[in-house]
Amino acid sequence: MRNLISIFICFLFISSFTPIDAQSRRKKKKEAKKELAKPLTPKKKLGKIKDYDKVITKDAKSDEGLFDVHLVGETYYFEIPMDYLNTDMLLVTRFAKLPSNLGGGYVNAGTKTNTRLINWERFKNKILIKEKSSSAIAADSLPINVSVRANNYEPTLYAFDIAAFSKDSTSVVIDVTNFYASDVKAISGLPSFFRKQYKVRNLDKSRSFINTMKSFPENIEVIQDFTYNASEPPVNTGDETISVQMNQSMILLPKVPMQPRLFDDRIGWFTLSKYDYGSNELKADRKTYLRRWKLIPKDIEAYKRGELVEPVKPIVYYLDPATPEKFRSYMKEGIELWQKAFEVAGFKNAIIAKDAPTKEEDPEFSPEDIRYSVVRYVASTTRNATGPSVSDPRSGEIIESDIIWYHNHLRSYRNRYLLETGAANPSARTLNTPDKEIGEMMKMVIAHEVGHTLGLPHNMSASYAYDVENYRNGAFTQKNGIAATIMDYARYNYIAQPGGTNIRFVRQLGPYDDYAINYGYRYISEAQSADAEKEVLKSWIMAKADNPKYKFGKQSSRFDPTAQTEDIGNNSILASTYGLKNLKIVAKNLPKWTSDHTDNYDDLEELYGEMLGVWSRYVGHVVTHVGGVVEDTKNPSQEGDVYNPVSKVYQKSAIQWLHKNAFETPIWLMDKSTLQNINYAGYTDRIRGVQSRHLNNLLNFERLGRLIDHKAMDASNYSALGMLRDVRLGIWLETKTASNVSVFRRNLQRAYLDRMTYLMTENLDPKRSRQYFNVNQSDVRALVRGELNQLKRTLIVASKMALSTETKYHYRDCIERIKNVLDPK
User: Fold this and answer.
1) Which pLDDT does position 38 carry in this prediction?
2) C-alpha angle 56/57/60, rounded to 5°?
3) Average pLDDT score over residue span 718-723
4) How is 96-116 classified by DSSP, letter by letter?
5) C or N terminus of the chain, fewer CB within 10 Å?
6) pLDDT given at position 40
7) Residues 6 or more apart from 205 whose CB is under 8 A from it?
8) What is the Cα 423 distance to its own chain's centre?
9) Integer CA distances (angstroms), 271 to 267, 274, 397, 538, in order
């Protein structure tokens, strides 16, 4: 979920149809067909329209379902019941098979490329596929509905000539061969950025064809084989070819959309938004609804009495047949961990995990079939897992979901388990993590991804609910885990210190998960509209408003130290201090735990690189406090402000911590027995790189702008000048003591000058910059100029007292660099 492909991998959701045997399915298809056979007025002979028997001949191979599908020779026909014209359907395009490395490893079998709300409409002697918009609405009874429709005219995706009418005039026949066999952009597997990246020239029709086309009572599934001519394919074997197999699903949506539930930004949820032009407000009223599964109690009266009741239609996940046998039980447990949360919402057995049916049990089962939600096991070197889904854009009802598990993902968890918990956790000090512990990690990763498919985004404030010292308490961690929700990026307990007993090191579900599921899924029988639920929903939120366990923190926050990714505890400075104490133990023992057992240095090299990443995360958690703002989403009826700057004392403590733990050379990361066995050079620059990354993050326009704002609002707040001065004094500490400057510190000091030069001279593109203030007309340049002038005076004096030649030359070089910045002429 991390680049352009993250945009491409839709964060929507999907269904749970229980598989039925082939005989029973055929029976349902025939019954559905009979219900639609309503006689109409006799059809007129229109132009090229032929008699039914001349189009759908006796040689036709037919499949009954939503639309009857006929194959005559090499031509595919849809026979569309008239009652299904102008009826809402969803068209979903996804990969069934694809070449390795397409999209850089984050696209896989099951990845969706398009989701479109469509209608089939008749226009004269043609049938059109129209893409409907659901983002602008107004009641049909209101005059403004005419304007909404006129100003949101729906595009035509394809136009088909009517080939024939059925004998009883209840359906219309069209040839869909060209639609599914040609490069129609609306359902293409290669979006424009792929075409540009791989220099796709065209679809090769001689190597492209319809593989299969099957019709079911609620949906039609089409498999296409497409081969493109491309100058730079993702796997370059010299043939300039990209071949993909695409699955096109078309599913009938409910005639009456699910009653939506209003979103409140005090609780996290994936959403959809609409503009209601029929509102009584003096503008189009933006309404935002939850994306969620439709759960209705089987026995509503029992549900009202507070009894646990099964839903009419539970959420069912099937395991991909490709899933290794040893992982199946963990995946099922991870899915069904959410049953407890649904019990809080009044449902039992609301979410169920099953093995996929065998070919003998259901020969038509396919993971691509939109009726089935599947945990897909992907043969890929990518280290990740995702929880995409598809939902009804009219109401937010989740129809189907595919959780993606990439084969190599457990490698990342093993490595981080060793690095983050190895000091305090003896069982993590190995490359062969015990199966039981690997299984526990996998179970929690699956549970996290299931949370996404239920509608929950990341909640980065959940770990802040717990005091840092509690992470060293075995009883507390066994009961509470390491965050108030599984949806935080809080994977391991890196705070616990050596000597602790009965410590839980792996995350688990928490009270926020129960709270969120209750908010999204509790059935409110007395409310007949989304607006009628508002007061009940509000009361649930207000009942938890002052408890940090139920706070929601956005992942997108760049400024809130209480809502950070990968951190745990309510004090990042103390948590990172404990984390670094542990990491120093791990660094010392890394060769013993890796290369001493493997008789090669591959794992040592991999883990050393990831260890630098762990160090960097701990440092980054502290940087966020400088210029930090705590966001506490609330309504005007609640006391206090939404945004509050971090206290001056805490920010200054963060700067002091950074000088001691990040900018003072971390010699412990320079273990000779590690470095000289994994690389021949680059030792000093690797340290420079990780240090300068955080120095640059500390000295950025956005942070300085926040500090300027905070000081303007309250003179007691930490100032931009104070921060710049504190950073300068620490980075150039040697100038006050006439001591030699090590090569590591010289590199860092030059990185400081480069960053100050950037702040002094960078011309920001207002269209691309995220700045919220005019840098040129702000205090930033003046403050940076003043600090550079002060540093120049200090260096002139220090250069005369320098003991080593390297230090003297370094100071003189820095003076010249400053002069060139302040007076380029």
Assistant:
1) 41
2) 80
3) 98
4) EE--TTGGGGT--TT-EEEEE
5) C
6) 38
7) 181, 182
8) 31
9) 11, 10, 10, 17
